[in-house]
Amino acid sequence: MLGGTEFVGRAVAEAAVARGWQVTVFHRGRHAPPPGVRVLRGDRSSGDGLAALGQQEWDAVVDTWSGAPRAVRDAARLLAGRCGAGPYVYISSRSVYAEPVAAGADETFPVVDASPHDTEAEDYARVKRGGELAAADAFGDRALFVRAGLIIGPGENVGRLPWWLLRTARGGDVPAPGPPGLPLQYIDVRDLAEWVLSAAARGLGGTYNVVSPPGHTTTGELLRTCVEVTGGRARLCWRTPESVLAAGAEPWTGLPVWLPPDSADYDHMHRSDVSRALAAGLRCRPVEETVADTWEWLRRIGGRAPMRADRPLKGLDEETEARLLAMPD
Ligand SMILES: NC(=O)c1ccc[n+]([C@@H]2O[C@H](COP(=O)([O-])OP(=O)(O)OC[C@H]3O[C@@H](n4cnc5c(N)ncnc54)[C@H](OP(=O)(O)O)[C@@H]3O)[C@@H](O)[C@H]2O)c1
Fold first, then answer.
1. CA-to-CA distance for 187 and 122, rounded, in angstroms?
2. Which of these, 232, 314, 275, 293, lies nearest to 11 by C-alpha position?
3. What is the pLDDT of residues 60-106, one digit of tens each?
4. Of 153, 194, 160, 186, whose CA–CA distance to 293 is shortest?
């Protein structure tokens, strides 16, 4: 496991340990590793940073890198001869598709231009596509690209579901971006992890959109569940998409998860085709379980969600919230 101590990588490592697999995590040492793993230390962005990987042989590699593709290139080259017939699983993203991304886009949809040798980490789509190309250069058809969409669940360090949970826990009038019946698409990090491990065990290669089917939940179901699990003190005040935008609330970041219906961004994030992953065994737990377990995790860690330093803060400021509440419903 290259990484394995934060959100997605940690979930994969924990699920692998739970399966009785022998798991090694390779990281710098800034976050505590999950229990039950062996630890190797190194810095992938420095010249001899991979030295700790030594000459050992592995059955499979899972890599969550989201920085410059060159780090994936170097690791994949080093490990290519040391994994037998095992795969290199690269946790990629549906952000690699070239915008505007049509509703129903599957794995054949055009992607952005990128290079596996890139040393830049500015453009997320290019970074993730470059990582895919780097894995493919070294592992060929044993490279597995897991193009995840929106990922939520316990351990989230991006602040989307945690923001909604902490806001509804505070109670009072909470502006809710309508319509409540808007279909949403996301993946619980634990379902993603299980799919990754099953795919790795089967030696699956190729490209998969890995996110729930469109409409696995709706905005209404998601937010009502947040209200319920946090004690029922919040009152959802539904506002039309037009009111949300007129109030200056930012889709996706200010109002996490939400994108205006009938927008290209909504089609991209919430209407993707996932039949390939479903046919390859993807199972998605009910939203109630994801929300309740994430709330339990947040409470266990004292109600302060960890936040990645390289992602914008999520949620509405007080002024925007008040402006939105004052808009007609
Ligand atoms: N969140 C979403 O909605 C979403 C959607 C689609 C795709 N994705 C993808 O999901 C993945 C998220 O993975 P993640 O949560 O596990 O976090 P990540 O940022 O990919 O990885 C962080 C891990 O890498 C280690 N690390 C960081 N810099 C390092 C370095 N220079 N050398 C060695 N190790 C280093 C960290 O270890 P230490 O800090 O412990 O040293 C930590 O274990 C990304 O690939 C992202 O693109 C996310």
1. 25
2. 293
3. 999 999 999 999 999 999 999 999 999 999 999 999 999 999 999 99
4. 153
pLDDT value at residue 121: 86
**CA nearest to 5, candidates 155, 143, 147, 187:** 155
Q: How much is the average pLDDT of 164-183? A: 98
Which ligand 1 atom sits nearest the alpha carbon of residue 95?
Answer: 6
The per-residue pLDDT of the chain, averaged, comes to: 96
The CA 4 to ligand 1 mean position distance, Å, reads: 7
**3-class secondary structure, 145:** strand
Question: Cis omega (within 30 of 0) on the bond before 179?
Answer: yes
Handedness of CA 121, 124, 125, 131 (dihedral sign): positive
- Best residue among 26, 28, 74 to mutate for probing ligand 1's pocket (most ligand atoms within 8 Å of CB) is 28
> Is the per-residue pLDDT at 54 higher than 90?
no
Residue type, 14: E
- Which residue has 């290669």 as its token pair? 205
User: What is the enclosing helix (H) or strand (E) of 208?
Assistant: strand 206-210
**How far lies 35's CA from each of 22, 63, 91, 152, 203, in Å?**
12, 19, 22, 22, 26
pLDDT of residue 176: 98
Give the nearest ligand 1 atom to 32 CA: 40
What sign has the CA pseudo-torsion 216, 220, 226, 228? negative
Atom index in ligand 1 nearest the CA of residue 160 equals 3
DSSP for 39-96 reads EEE--TTSTTTTGGGTT---S-EEE---S-THHHHHHHHHHGGGSTT--EEEEEEGGG
Three-state secondary-structure class, residue 125: helix
Nearest residue to 284 via CA among 153, 164, 97 = 153
What's the angle, vertex CA 246, arms to CA 241 and CA 250, rounded to 5? 70
- Name which of 93, 96, 90, 92 is nearest 126 in CA terms: 96
